[in-house]
TrEMBL record:
The lineage of its organism: Bacteria, Pseudomonadati, Pseudomonadota, Alphaproteobacteria, Hyphomicrobiales. NCBIfam families: formate_TAT, TAT_signal_seq. This is Twin-arginine translocation signal domain-containing protein. It comes from the Bacteria. It comes from Bradyrhizobium quebecense. InterPro entries: Formate_DH_TAT-contain, TAT_signal, TAT_signal_bac_arc.
Amino acid sequence: MSDEKKMTAGRRDFLRKVGIGTVGAGAALATPLIAPAQADSETEAEKRKARYKETDHVKAYYRVNRYPR
């Protein structure tokens, strides 16, 4: 019985340490991804202008996927 109790405690300690290591690694990886907020550089006129252009690759996409025009 003492062997079973010892093995169970060992497994629990192992899993606890793995869990703590995972959280630490995740925090270390996420830290460089957090960047300070930057202001929007577009003016109001640029925000409202038309952006869609039916270029050759867009036309090819429509043709290949059989979208009606």
